[in-house]
Every structure is written in structure tokens, then in C-alpha cells.
Amino acid sequence: MPEPSRNETPSFFDLERERLTREITTGFEELLSSNNSLNRVLQDVLGRAEEWDTLATLWTSFADLMKQSHTVVPETEQGMGVPGTGGHIVAGSTSAKP
Questions:
Q1: Rounded CA gap, 42 and 34, in Å?
Q2: What is the per-residue pLDDT for 51?
Q3: Domains in the chain, number
Q4: 51 domain residue, yes or no
Q5: Where is the stretch described as Disordered (predicted)?
Q6: Side-chain half-sphere of 67: how many Cα atoms within 13 Å?
Q7: How many Å apart are CA 53 and CA 58, to the nearest integer?
Q8: What is the pTM (predicted TM-score) of this model?
Q9: Which residues, 6 or more positions from 4, have their beta carbon under 8 angstroms from its beta carbon?
């Protein structure tokens, strides 16, 4: 098969092949760039998810602690209560007024 000499103009086939090769190369470069951007975003999302896991564990521990502190205590063990909390009972005098 004879090779085209440098003086000859490239055929339509050669021109189209070169154009399509450039177009495909450009497409792959754009795809690679988009893929790299997507990977960075996914890494960021996974990093934030790990932060939320830590926070969720902390809140779970807090909720468990609150559940344990809300156990029912018999009224005799509660005492009179603390003023300002609504549990303080002021004892009234049982003597009759004159």
C-alpha cells in the first residue's frame, strides 16, 4: 500500500480520522476531569459522614444516660424537693388561728 507523500493533501478519510481522534481525546480529558471532581466530592461527603457518626454516637450515649436518669424513684425517697424547681413543698402550720 503506498504511503501518501508529504506534498499530497490528506484524503477526506485522514482528515476525518484526525478530527475524530481529537474529539475523542478531548472527550476523554473532560471525562477524566469530571471523574476526578466527583471523587473529590465523594471523599468530602464520606469525611463528613464520619464526623456525623461520631456526633450520632455522642447523642446516643447522651440519650441512654438520660433514660437511665429518668428511672422512677418512690416518692418517699424524693424528699421535699429543691426551691425553685417546682418540687419544694412548703409545710403549713396545723395550729388553728385565734
A1: 12
A2: 82
A3: 1
A4: yes
A5: 75-98
A6: 6
A7: 9
A8: 0.45
A9: 10, 11, 14
Task: Tell me how far apart the alpha carbons of residues 68 and 45 are, in angstroms, rounded to a whole number.
Answer: 34
CA atoms within 13 A on the CB side of 71: 6
Q: Which residue has the cell 465523594?
A: 42
Is there a domain that residue 26 lies in?
yes
Alpha-carbon gap, residue 73 to 66, rounded angstroms: 14
In the numeric block, the cell 418512690 is attached to 74
| Residue span of the structural domain in which 17 resides | 12-70
CB-CB contact of 89 with 81 (8 Å): yes
> What is the gyration radius of the CA atoms in the chain, in angstroms?
40
Choose between 66 and 69: higher pLDDT.
66
Q: In the block, which residue shows the cell 473532560?
A: 30
C-alpha cell at 55: 456526633
In a domain, 84, yes or no: no
